[in-house]
Amino acid sequence: MTKNISNKCPICGNEGIHIRSLSRNNIMSELEDYFAEKPPEKIEIIDYEIQQCKNCSLEYSFPLEAGSQSFYQWVTTRVGYYPESRWEWLPVIEQINQREKQNSISILDVGCGGGNFLEIVKKLSNTRIVGLDTTLKSVEKCQARGFEVYCETIESFYNKFSHERFNYILSFHCLEHISQPKQFIASMFSVLKPMGSIFISTPYSPMSVESDWFDILNHPPHHLLRWSKKSYEELAHQLGCEIKFYMPPANSVIARTTNNFSLSKFGKNQTVSKLKLFQEIIKNPTLFLKIFFDQLRRERVNRSVAADIVLVELKLSSKIK
Ligand SMILES: [Zn+2]
Rounded to the nearest whole angstrom, what is the distance from the C-alpha of residue 239 to the centroid of ligand 1? Predict the structure, then answer.
């Protein structure tokens, strides 16, 4: 894949404004705080700038250069990196079930990891399931579990199997790592059946914790792109497709306020008792109230408070029901 050396928005091509600088030293120290463990010095990490598109609000890193192999080898082997399940798996399966009944269908999972979702979706009857991943170890794990999985990107898969077409293409938590998002989704449309749907999930940025705590895993070298409703709508506009948003209910305003207060005072890795947290709130009522009012003003999506994760459906022809 060619490197994107422009500092323009990778979706709409407009100018960005500078949000923050993230030097290698900043990143290493934030990773150490996050995992309570010093990352090995030999990890290759470059300096990044964070830009925000003036038109579509997408936050993107400059350069748009993905984390190195050494970074991913380290971060993907941290405890809890790959979740056992994800919220969006169920709504996707429900949507497919409701629409297809007993129809024979095909599903492509782009970035299928070790195959945890494939394991769940294989229970759907009359379904052919194919997975793609670029990590050889994950691909081998899936193949050992009996799945049809290829060590390919969506682009290289299309080049090799250009006759293949799927009813559903799914990609969970990949788009935020991608340097060429428009091309990534366009390649998915190349292997999608005419009436098919693409389901994509990413974090919804800024996440509710980010007003009070810096989340290095939602920044480069891990996440190159930070998606909001406006930036997704621009992506759909650029690709000429329809878009629909799905979200879980957000945590309550009190839960978000308490969590953010705790993170801002104690960081991620301290166990904080309720008593200790309460004493700290009594000492800092102004901060607690500021966080509370910030959270009351949190953006709304589909007329509800924005959660920290979003699932979008992209579809070419006719309006999404
Ligand atoms: Zn833009």
Answer: 13
